[in-house]
Protein backbone atom coordinates (compact mmCIF):
# COMPACT_ATOMS: atom_id res chain seq x y z
CA UNK A 1 0.00 0.00 0.00
CA UNK A 2 1.36 3.40 -0.93
CA UNK A 3 1.70 6.03 1.74
CA UNK A 4 0.09 9.35 0.90
CA UNK A 5 2.18 12.46 0.36
CA UNK A 6 0.49 14.07 3.37
CA UNK A 7 1.51 11.15 5.54
CA UNK A 8 5.13 11.32 4.36
CA UNK A 9 5.16 15.07 5.03
CA UNK A 10 3.88 14.45 8.57
CA UNK A 11 6.79 12.09 9.18
CA UNK A 12 9.21 14.63 7.71
CA UNK A 13 7.90 17.37 10.03
CA UNK A 14 8.78 15.32 13.12
CA UNK A 15 12.29 14.68 11.83
CA UNK A 16 12.80 18.34 10.95
CA UNK A 17 11.64 19.58 14.35
CA UNK A 18 14.22 17.27 15.90
CA UNK A 19 16.88 19.59 14.51
CA UNK A 20 15.53 23.02 15.49
CA UNK A 21 14.83 24.74 18.83
CA UNK A 22 11.20 24.62 19.97
CA UNK A 23 11.30 27.94 21.86
CA UNK A 24 7.84 29.49 22.09
CA UNK A 25 6.10 26.88 19.93
CA UNK A 26 4.33 25.10 22.79
CA UNK A 27 0.87 26.72 23.12
CA UNK A 28 0.05 28.34 26.44
CA UNK A 29 -2.34 26.46 28.73
CA UNK A 30 -4.70 29.44 28.97
CA UNK A 31 -8.29 28.51 28.06
CA UNK A 32 -10.60 30.78 26.10
CA UNK A 33 -14.14 30.06 24.94
CA UNK A 34 -13.03 30.05 21.31
CA UNK A 35 -10.27 27.55 22.08
CA UNK A 36 -12.61 25.27 24.02
CA UNK A 37 -15.19 25.22 21.23
CA UNK A 38 -12.68 24.27 18.55
CA UNK A 39 -11.06 21.20 20.11
CA UNK A 40 -12.03 17.60 20.83
CA UNK A 41 -15.77 17.17 21.35
CA UNK A 42 -16.52 13.47 21.66
CA UNK A 43 -19.10 11.50 23.63
CA UNK A 44 -16.98 10.18 26.50
CA UNK A 45 -19.29 7.29 27.25
CA UNK A 46 -19.06 6.19 23.62
CA UNK A 47 -15.25 6.25 23.80
CA UNK A 48 -15.30 3.86 26.76
CA UNK A 49 -17.80 1.62 24.97
CA UNK A 50 -15.66 1.66 21.84
CA UNK A 51 -12.64 0.63 23.86
CA UNK A 52 -14.47 -2.44 25.16
CA UNK A 53 -16.45 -3.37 22.03
CA UNK A 54 -14.71 -1.80 19.02
CA UNK A 55 -15.86 -1.23 15.47
CA UNK A 56 -13.55 -2.50 12.77
CA UNK A 57 -13.31 0.92 11.12
CA UNK A 58 -12.15 2.88 14.18
CA UNK A 59 -8.83 2.66 15.99
CA UNK A 60 -8.83 5.19 18.82
CA UNK A 61 -5.76 7.45 18.88
CA UNK A 62 -4.13 8.28 22.20
CA UNK A 63 -1.74 11.24 22.25
CA UNK A 64 1.10 9.87 24.35
CA UNK A 65 1.99 12.41 27.07
CA UNK A 66 0.26 15.22 25.18
CA UNK A 67 1.55 17.21 22.21
CA UNK A 68 5.05 15.83 22.48
CA UNK A 69 6.26 17.40 19.23
CA UNK A 70 6.36 20.92 20.68
CA UNK A 71 5.59 20.73 24.41
CA UNK A 72 7.36 18.96 27.27
CA UNK A 73 5.80 15.59 27.99
CA UNK A 74 3.02 15.19 30.56
CA UNK A 75 2.36 18.91 30.92
CA UNK A 76 -0.94 20.78 30.96
CA UNK A 77 0.29 22.76 27.96
CA UNK A 78 0.87 19.57 25.97
CA UNK A 79 -2.42 18.11 27.17
CA UNK A 80 -4.46 21.10 26.01
CA UNK A 81 -2.54 21.35 22.72
CA UNK A 82 -3.41 17.73 21.86
CA UNK A 83 -7.07 18.49 22.55
CA UNK A 84 -6.79 21.54 20.27
CA UNK A 85 -5.87 19.13 17.50
CA UNK A 86 -9.05 17.12 18.06
CA UNK A 87 -7.48 13.92 19.38
CA UNK A 88 -9.97 11.69 21.19
CA UNK A 89 -7.71 10.43 24.00
CA UNK A 90 -4.70 11.92 25.80
CA UNK A 91 -2.43 9.92 28.10
CA UNK A 92 -0.49 11.48 30.98
CA UNK A 93 1.98 9.82 33.36
CA UNK A 94 1.70 10.33 37.12
CA UNK A 95 3.85 9.62 40.17
CA UNK A 96 3.62 10.60 43.83
CA UNK A 97 5.96 12.90 45.72
CA UNK A 98 7.27 12.61 49.28
CA UNK A 99 4.81 13.62 52.03
CA UNK A 100 4.72 17.35 52.73
CA UNK A 101 2.95 20.59 51.91
CA UNK A 102 2.56 22.58 48.72
CA UNK A 103 3.42 26.27 48.37
CA UNK A 104 -0.05 27.22 49.67
CA UNK A 105 0.44 25.23 52.85
CA UNK A 106 -1.90 22.36 51.96
CA UNK A 107 -0.66 19.13 53.53
CA UNK A 108 -0.31 15.84 51.64
CA UNK A 109 0.44 13.17 54.26
CA UNK A 110 0.77 10.48 51.57
CA UNK A 111 2.53 12.71 49.04
CA UNK A 112 0.97 14.59 46.11
CA UNK A 113 0.40 13.25 42.60
CA UNK A 114 2.44 15.01 39.90
CA UNK A 115 2.52 14.73 36.12
CA UNK A 116 5.77 12.97 35.28
CA UNK A 117 7.01 9.78 33.70
CA UNK A 118 10.33 9.79 35.57
CA UNK A 119 11.08 9.54 39.27
CA UNK A 120 14.57 10.91 38.56
CA UNK A 121 13.71 14.39 37.29
CA UNK A 122 16.99 15.07 35.49
CA UNK A 123 15.39 14.10 32.18
CA UNK A 124 12.18 16.15 32.51
CA UNK A 125 12.68 18.96 35.02
CA UNK A 126 16.33 18.91 36.06
CA UNK A 127 17.50 20.53 39.27
CA UNK A 128 21.20 21.02 40.04
CA UNK A 129 23.14 18.79 37.67
CA UNK A 130 24.66 15.76 39.30
CA UNK A 131 22.95 16.33 42.66
CA UNK A 132 20.90 13.15 43.06
CA UNK A 133 19.08 14.21 46.21
CA UNK A 134 17.59 17.21 44.39
CA UNK A 135 16.20 15.13 41.53
CA UNK A 136 14.54 12.15 43.23
CA UNK A 137 10.79 12.79 43.10
CA UNK A 138 10.21 10.33 45.92
CA UNK A 139 12.23 12.43 48.39
CA UNK A 140 10.96 15.85 47.26
CA UNK A 141 8.01 17.57 48.94
CA UNK A 142 5.26 19.12 46.77
CA UNK A 143 6.58 22.64 47.34
CA UNK A 144 9.98 21.55 46.00
CA UNK A 145 8.51 20.16 42.78
CA UNK A 146 5.73 22.45 41.61
CA UNK A 147 7.91 25.29 40.30
CA UNK A 148 10.56 23.24 38.48
CA UNK A 149 10.93 24.18 34.82
CA UNK A 150 10.28 21.41 32.30
CA UNK A 151 12.56 20.73 29.36
CA UNK A 152 11.42 19.93 25.82
CA UNK A 153 12.52 16.88 23.86
CA UNK A 154 15.84 18.55 23.09
CA UNK A 155 16.52 18.93 26.81
CA UNK A 156 16.13 22.73 26.63
CA UNK A 157 14.08 24.68 29.20
CA UNK A 158 10.64 25.12 27.66
CA UNK A 159 8.99 28.49 27.06
CA UNK A 160 5.38 28.56 25.89
CA UNK A 161 3.75 30.79 23.27
CA UNK A 162 3.01 33.43 25.92
CA UNK A 163 6.68 33.65 26.89
CA UNK A 164 6.16 31.81 30.19
CA UNK A 165 8.25 28.94 31.51
CA UNK A 166 6.51 25.55 31.35
CA UNK A 167 6.67 24.12 34.86
CA UNK A 168 5.74 20.85 36.55
CA UNK A 169 2.10 20.52 37.54
CA UNK A 170 0.11 18.37 39.91
CA UNK A 171 -2.75 16.04 39.08
CA UNK A 172 -5.13 18.52 40.69
CA UNK A 173 -3.76 21.28 38.42
CA UNK A 174 -4.53 19.05 35.42
CA UNK A 175 -8.08 18.37 36.61
CA UNK A 176 -8.62 22.08 37.16
CA UNK A 177 -7.52 22.88 33.60
CA UNK A 178 -9.51 19.95 32.18
CA UNK A 179 -12.76 21.06 33.84
CA UNK A 180 -12.16 24.73 33.00
CA UNK A 181 -12.06 23.82 29.32
CA UNK A 182 -15.20 21.70 29.66
CA UNK A 183 -17.08 24.57 31.30
CA UNK A 184 -16.21 26.79 28.32
CA UNK A 185 -17.35 24.14 25.82
CA UNK A 186 -21.05 23.97 24.97
CA UNK A 187 -22.67 20.72 26.04
CA UNK A 188 -19.59 19.25 27.67
CA UNK A 189 -21.08 19.25 31.17
CA UNK A 190 -24.56 18.16 32.23
CA UNK A 191 -26.01 20.14 35.13
CA UNK A 192 -27.02 16.94 36.93
CA UNK A 193 -26.75 13.18 36.77
CA UNK A 194 -23.42 12.83 38.53
CA UNK A 195 -22.62 11.28 41.91
CA UNK A 196 -19.80 12.56 44.10
CA UNK A 197 -18.69 12.43 47.75
CA UNK A 198 -20.06 8.90 48.06
CA UNK A 199 -23.62 10.05 47.32
CA UNK A 200 -25.95 8.49 44.77
CA UNK A 201 -28.51 11.31 44.51
CA UNK A 202 -27.44 12.38 41.00
CA UNK A 203 -27.37 16.09 41.85
CA UNK A 204 -23.75 16.69 40.81
CA UNK A 205 -22.64 17.93 37.40
CA UNK A 206 -21.41 15.23 34.98
CA UNK A 207 -18.67 15.69 32.37
CA UNK A 208 -19.97 13.95 29.23
CA UNK A 209 -18.10 15.37 26.21
CA UNK A 210 -14.56 16.35 25.28
CA UNK A 211 -11.37 14.31 25.18
CA UNK A 212 -10.87 11.14 27.21
CA UNK A 213 -8.05 11.29 29.80
CA UNK A 214 -5.90 8.21 30.45
CA UNK A 215 -3.62 8.30 33.49
CA UNK A 216 -0.64 5.96 33.24
CA UNK A 217 0.12 5.35 36.92
CA UNK A 218 3.83 4.82 37.61
CA UNK A 219 5.59 3.15 40.53
CA UNK A 220 9.17 2.47 41.46
CA UNK A 221 9.10 -1.33 41.42
CA UNK A 222 10.90 -1.67 38.08
CA UNK A 223 13.76 0.50 39.35
CA UNK A 224 14.13 -1.24 42.72
CA UNK A 225 17.70 -2.32 42.01
CA UNK A 226 19.12 1.03 40.93
CA UNK A 227 22.93 1.18 40.64
CA UNK A 228 23.07 4.95 41.12
CA UNK A 229 20.55 5.64 43.86
CA UNK A 230 20.88 2.39 45.77
CA UNK A 231 18.57 -0.44 46.71
CA UNK A 232 15.86 0.35 47.47
CA UNK A 233 15.49 3.79 45.90
CA UNK A 234 15.13 6.29 48.76
CA UNK A 235 11.44 7.00 49.36
CA UNK A 236 10.25 4.72 46.54
CA UNK A 237 6.45 4.36 46.26
CA UNK A 238 4.84 1.45 44.42
CA UNK A 239 2.32 1.69 41.64
CA UNK A 240 -0.70 0.51 43.62
CA UNK A 241 -0.04 2.98 46.46
CA UNK A 242 0.35 5.73 43.86
CA UNK A 243 -2.98 4.76 42.33
CA UNK A 244 -4.69 4.94 45.72
CA UNK A 245 -3.41 8.49 46.31
CA UNK A 246 -4.59 9.46 42.80
CA UNK A 247 -8.03 8.10 43.71
CA UNK A 248 -8.05 10.14 46.93
CA UNK A 249 -7.10 13.34 45.10
CA UNK A 250 -9.67 12.72 42.36
CA UNK A 251 -12.36 12.14 44.98
CA UNK A 252 -11.43 15.32 46.83
CA UNK A 253 -11.51 17.33 43.59
CA UNK A 254 -14.89 15.96 42.55
CA UNK A 255 -16.36 16.62 45.97
CA UNK A 256 -14.97 20.15 46.19
CA UNK A 257 -16.19 21.06 42.69
CA UNK A 258 -19.42 19.00 42.74
CA UNK A 259 -18.58 17.38 39.41
CA UNK A 260 -18.48 13.71 38.44
CA UNK A 261 -15.54 12.76 36.17
CA UNK A 262 -16.25 9.03 36.12
CA UNK A 263 -17.01 8.98 32.37
CA UNK A 264 -13.90 10.87 31.37
CA UNK A 265 -10.89 9.29 33.11
CA UNK A 266 -9.29 5.84 32.96
CA UNK A 267 -6.41 4.59 35.10
CA UNK A 268 -3.79 2.45 33.35
CA UNK A 269 -1.69 0.13 35.50
CA UNK A 270 0.49 -2.93 35.14
CA UNK A 271 -1.69 -5.95 35.80
CA UNK A 272 1.14 -7.63 37.69
CA UNK A 273 0.81 -5.05 40.47
CA UNK A 274 -2.95 -5.28 40.93
CA UNK A 275 -5.02 -7.48 43.26
CA UNK A 276 -5.48 -10.86 41.61
CA UNK A 277 -9.29 -10.66 41.63
CA UNK A 278 -11.75 -7.93 40.78
CA UNK A 279 -13.46 -8.50 44.14
CA UNK A 280 -10.30 -7.53 46.01
CA UNK A 281 -9.93 -4.38 43.95
CA UNK A 282 -13.60 -3.54 44.38
CA UNK A 283 -13.14 -3.77 48.15
CA UNK A 284 -10.43 -1.11 47.92
CA UNK A 285 -12.65 1.10 45.75
CA UNK A 286 -15.44 0.86 48.32
CA UNK A 287 -13.25 1.77 51.29
CA UNK A 288 -11.60 4.97 52.42
CA UNK A 289 -8.76 4.42 49.94
CA UNK A 290 -10.53 6.31 47.18
CA UNK A 291 -12.47 9.14 48.80
CA UNK A 292 -15.90 8.09 47.58
CA UNK A 293 -15.32 8.17 43.82
CA UNK A 294 -17.36 6.01 41.47
CA UNK A 295 -15.88 2.80 40.11
CA UNK A 296 -12.93 4.09 38.06
CA UNK A 297 -12.26 2.88 34.53
CA UNK A 298 -9.29 0.51 34.41
CA UNK A 299 -6.88 -0.45 31.64
CA UNK A 300 -4.43 -3.20 32.59
CA UNK A 301 -1.01 -3.28 30.93
CA UNK A 302 0.05 -6.74 29.78
CA UNK A 303 3.72 -7.61 29.19
CA UNK A 304 4.82 -10.73 27.35
CA UNK A 305 6.63 -12.10 30.41
CA UNK A 306 3.44 -11.68 32.48
CA UNK A 307 1.10 -13.69 30.33
CA UNK A 308 3.09 -16.90 30.91
CA UNK A 309 2.68 -16.64 34.68
CA UNK A 310 0.29 -19.05 36.33
CA UNK A 311 -3.13 -17.48 36.83
CA UNK A 312 -2.42 -14.27 34.90
CA UNK A 313 -4.86 -14.92 32.07
CA UNK A 314 -7.48 -15.97 34.62
CA UNK A 315 -6.93 -12.65 36.44
CA UNK A 316 -7.62 -10.65 33.27
CA UNK A 317 -10.75 -12.71 32.62
CA UNK A 318 -11.91 -12.17 36.21
CA UNK A 319 -11.65 -8.38 35.87
CA UNK A 320 -13.54 -8.47 32.59
CA UNK A 321 -16.30 -10.63 34.08
CA UNK A 322 -16.67 -8.98 37.48
CA UNK A 323 -15.55 -5.36 37.24
CA UNK A 324 -17.86 -3.39 34.99
CA UNK A 325 -15.47 -0.47 34.58
CA UNK A 326 -12.66 -2.65 33.19
CA UNK A 327 -12.03 -1.39 29.65
CA UNK A 328 -9.46 -3.94 28.52
CA UNK A 329 -5.78 -4.68 28.12
CA UNK A 330 -2.99 -2.46 26.85
CA UNK A 331 -0.75 -5.03 25.19
CA UNK A 332 2.95 -4.24 25.09
CA UNK A 333 3.52 -5.08 21.45
CA UNK A 334 6.64 -3.00 20.99
CA UNK A 335 8.86 -5.93 20.10
CA UNK A 336 8.34 -7.77 16.78
CA UNK A 337 7.41 -11.40 17.14
CA UNK A 338 6.73 -11.39 20.87
CA UNK A 339 4.68 -14.03 22.61
CA UNK A 340 1.59 -11.86 23.12
CA UNK A 341 0.35 -12.12 19.57
CA UNK A 342 -1.73 -15.32 20.02
CA UNK A 343 -3.47 -13.74 23.02
CA UNK A 344 -4.14 -10.56 21.07
CA UNK A 345 -5.63 -12.60 18.24
CA UNK A 346 -7.85 -14.37 20.77
CA UNK A 347 -9.01 -11.02 22.23
CA UNK A 348 -9.93 -9.67 18.82
CA UNK A 349 -11.65 -12.90 17.79
CA UNK A 350 -13.84 -12.59 20.89
CA UNK A 351 -14.78 -9.03 19.90
CA UNK A 352 -12.74 -7.28 22.58
CA UNK A 353 -10.65 -4.18 22.06
CA UNK A 354 -6.87 -4.40 21.73
CA UNK A 355 -4.86 -1.37 22.76
CA UNK A 356 -1.13 -1.20 22.38
CA UNK A 357 2.09 0.67 21.74
CA UNK A 358 3.58 1.10 18.30
CA UNK A 359 7.35 1.37 18.67
CA UNK A 360 8.94 0.12 15.51
CA UNK A 361 11.17 3.06 14.60
CA UNK A 362 12.85 5.40 17.06
CA UNK A 363 12.85 9.17 16.90
CA UNK A 364 16.25 10.79 16.38
CA UNK A 365 16.28 11.73 20.07
CA UNK A 366 16.42 8.08 21.14
CA UNK A 367 14.87 6.63 24.30
CA UNK A 368 14.97 7.66 27.96
CA UNK A 369 14.49 5.50 31.04
CA UNK A 370 12.56 6.57 34.14
CA UNK A 371 15.85 6.97 36.00
CA UNK A 372 16.88 9.63 33.43
CA UNK A 373 19.51 7.47 31.76
CA UNK A 374 19.53 7.58 27.97
CA UNK A 375 19.47 4.86 25.36
CA UNK A 376 20.76 5.58 21.89
CA UNK A 377 18.00 4.60 19.48
CA UNK A 378 20.19 2.43 17.25
CA UNK A 379 21.70 0.47 20.17
CA UNK A 380 19.12 0.20 22.96
CA UNK A 381 21.09 -2.29 25.08
CA UNK A 382 22.81 -1.88 27.44
CA UNK A 383 21.63 1.48 28.85
CA UNK A 384 24.03 4.36 28.68
CA UNK A 385 24.50 5.46 32.33
CA UNK A 386 24.95 9.16 31.57
CA UNK A 387 22.05 11.52 32.48
CA UNK A 388 20.09 12.81 29.50
CA UNK A 389 20.71 16.44 30.33
CA UNK A 390 24.44 16.06 29.75
CA UNK A 391 24.18 14.06 26.52
CA UNK A 392 24.65 15.48 23.03
CA UNK A 393 21.51 17.06 21.54
CA UNK A 394 20.60 14.05 19.41
CA UNK A 395 20.35 11.81 22.47
CA UNK A 396 17.58 13.64 24.28
CA UNK A 397 14.29 11.81 24.44
CA UNK A 398 10.80 12.13 25.78
CA UNK A 399 9.62 8.60 25.15
CA UNK A 400 10.07 5.44 23.16
CA UNK A 401 6.82 5.22 21.24
CA UNK A 402 6.28 6.37 17.69
CA UNK A 403 4.13 5.84 14.65
CA UNK A 404 6.15 6.02 11.48
CA UNK A 405 5.28 2.69 9.84
CA UNK A 406 3.09 -0.28 10.82
CA UNK A 407 5.04 -2.92 12.73
CA UNK A 408 5.79 -6.02 10.65
CA UNK A 409 4.59 -8.51 13.24
CA UNK A 410 1.21 -7.03 14.20
CA UNK A 411 -1.01 -5.44 11.59
CA UNK A 412 -2.65 -2.12 12.42
CA UNK A 413 -5.96 -3.68 11.33
CA UNK A 414 -5.93 -5.72 14.55
CA UNK A 415 -5.66 -2.68 16.82
CA UNK A 416 -8.63 -0.86 18.32
CA UNK A 417 -6.62 1.76 20.24
CA UNK A 418 -3.13 3.06 19.47
CA UNK A 419 -0.86 5.05 21.77
CA UNK A 420 1.58 7.23 19.87
CA UNK A 421 3.77 10.32 20.15
CA UNK A 422 3.25 11.16 16.50
CA UNK A 423 -0.53 11.38 16.60
CA UNK A 424 -0.69 13.59 13.51
CA UNK A 425 0.98 10.94 11.35
CA UNK A 426 -1.17 8.25 13.01
CA UNK A 427 -4.32 10.19 12.19
CA UNK A 428 -3.33 10.57 8.55
CA UNK A 429 -2.35 6.92 8.26
CA UNK A 430 -5.53 5.57 9.86
CA UNK A 431 -7.63 7.78 7.62
CA UNK A 432 -5.72 6.41 4.63
CA UNK A 433 -6.60 2.83 5.51
CA UNK A 434 -10.18 3.62 6.61
CA UNK A 435 -9.70 3.02 10.34
CA UNK A 436 -10.62 6.34 11.94
CA UNK A 437 -14.38 6.64 11.59
CA UNK A 438 -15.16 8.83 14.58
CA UNK A 439 -18.90 8.87 13.95
CA UNK A 440 -18.99 5.99 16.47
CA UNK A 441 -17.90 8.33 19.28
CA UNK A 442 -19.90 11.45 18.41
From TrEMBL:
GO MF terms held by the record: phosphoric diester hydrolase activity
GP-PDE domain location: 64-97
Signal peptide span: 1-24
Keywords from the UniProt entry: Signal
InterPro entries (alphabetical): GP_PDE_dom, PLC-like_Pdiesterase_TIM-brl
Pfam families: GDPD (PF03009)
Domain of life where this protein originates: Bacteria
Protein name: GP-PDE domain-containing protein
Species the sequence originates in: Granulicella arctica
Amino acid sequence: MKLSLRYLLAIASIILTSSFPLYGQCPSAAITTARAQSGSNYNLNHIATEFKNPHSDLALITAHRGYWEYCPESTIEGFQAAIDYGIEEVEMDVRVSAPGSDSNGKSYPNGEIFLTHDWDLRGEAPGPLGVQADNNLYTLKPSQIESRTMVDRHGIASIDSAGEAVTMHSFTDLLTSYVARAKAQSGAIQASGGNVCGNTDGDAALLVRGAFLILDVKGGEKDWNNPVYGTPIPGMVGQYDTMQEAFRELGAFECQNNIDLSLSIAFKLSGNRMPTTAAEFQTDVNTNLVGGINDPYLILIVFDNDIAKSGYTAMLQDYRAHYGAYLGGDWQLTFPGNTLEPYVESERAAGYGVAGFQGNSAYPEGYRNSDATCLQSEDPLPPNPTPCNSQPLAWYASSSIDFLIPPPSLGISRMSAITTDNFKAALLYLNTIGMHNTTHIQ
